[in-house]
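Quick note —
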Amino acid sequence: MTTARLSRQVVYGKNGMVCTNSPLSAAAGLKVLQEGGNAFDAALATAATETVTMVPMCGIGGDSFILLYEAENSRVTGISSAGVPGSGTSADYYRKQGLTKMPLEGPHSVGVPGEVAAWEEVHRRFCSKPFEQLLDSAIGYAEDGFAVPPKIAQSFASTSERLAGYPSTKEVLLAGGKTPGEGDLLVNKDLAESLKRIATGGADEFYKGELARKMIKSLNDAGGLFTADDFANHRPEIYDPIGTTYRGETVFQTRPPSQGFLHLEMLNLIEGFDLTDKSYDNPEAIHLMVEAKKIAYADRNRLAGDPRVVEWPLDEIISKEYADRRRGEINLQMAGTESPNILAGKSDGNTTYFCVADRAGNAVSWVHSLSHGFGSRFIAGGTGILFNNRAGRGFSLESGHPNEFSPRKRTMHTLNCYLTLRDGKCHIIGGTPGGDFQPQSGVQIITNLLDFGMNPQAAVDAPRWWSYPGTDPASIDTELELRVEPEMPEKTIEGLQKLGHKVTRRNQGQYDGKVQLIVIDQERQVLLGAADPRGDGLSAAY
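Predicted structure written out below.
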């Protein structure tokens, strides 16, 4: 039996729009737009505020992947900022301890954070307002506290026992031995002080200054093996994004170590089939997308690694010619099996995504994350900074694997976001948290909009499917299944089962992703925003 669909209304705006999982962050970004800032100013203010208010999901101890569209010259720029693990480690270091998988929490799960370096690049290249001004809201919420929203409260409740295992974390996030509940004020004065240092000292303070020294000492005192150079040598990547075309639009994605190329590869495979007589819940349409997913994810697990260290044919994999060669492997009458050497795992997708557009047509698509919920669960004492666990979650200890652990490598990332151009102008800006679900979500949103003719909010509200497992090396040999949200129609499930899929319906309250979406109507010069009812966020416009 299906349940009532989640639903909201499309939000319309003309002068600017921010769609985010954090209402406080949306307000911070909108305030910057109303004060004359551009989309890039608003995006930086939104990102900074989210690192305070979205505690389990992102932070200045995490990473960022960003796409930025400049309306003046129709240029799309990518910024990826994710760091390497401590240089005192190696794959053999962990194997000699009897480990077959990387530690998922604590200092050994941490990669050098990229968030602050990304802020500085965005500000230097695109912003019009002073850097410190754009951090004002974030500093205020850290210093004076903010009321914990429902989804964040749920995350605290489910993880508080693990957070209590680290004294420095317990002191900040579980002050007085109390787990923050819905509506409780959460204060992090140490984080406010760290943000003030960054506001005046920029990325140099975070990666080379006194703040860097405090972070490294705290990590190493707890068993980490970082050096000053590990932080000081971090640099974000500035690049031309990868892309493809789909139904006449150009779709841009973030470059590796992001796995955004999966989104493009799937779209290329799907484009060879006519979906005009289908709908989002048509079993044959979903079957096609799931089979395309299996090909793309098998390629990722077989080939992909940090392109600075591992050579692999990215350009070929996202080409139309490659899709033409592989498309014949899709059996429209029967589900195929996953690649036998796939590395699968549990993916809880604790990331957050937001998008921004302004009246001039500039746009930003931004995803940032601590990886797992609350990342490594480790806060550097005296800084209030909660670190990611990207090294622990993303690397393999399998010898010879393209994503095998190395202190010279960045792990492959599930993080990715997208935007599209129509006739050279920005049209769709979108993304979601959700780990390995992210590229699959991107395919569903793009097809909902371009193939099935849905409005932005309907495209976001529609029940989703998730072909599991994906790429996370936390566990192996997970049985292949197709997970569908509670509202998916029964006739859809029956049709998928007839096609050979093992389908499991999510329990009520279990949902995949928290999509934020802006569509720019160039003809009417209007912004259409959609915020996912699965989360706490909203679309804010003026």
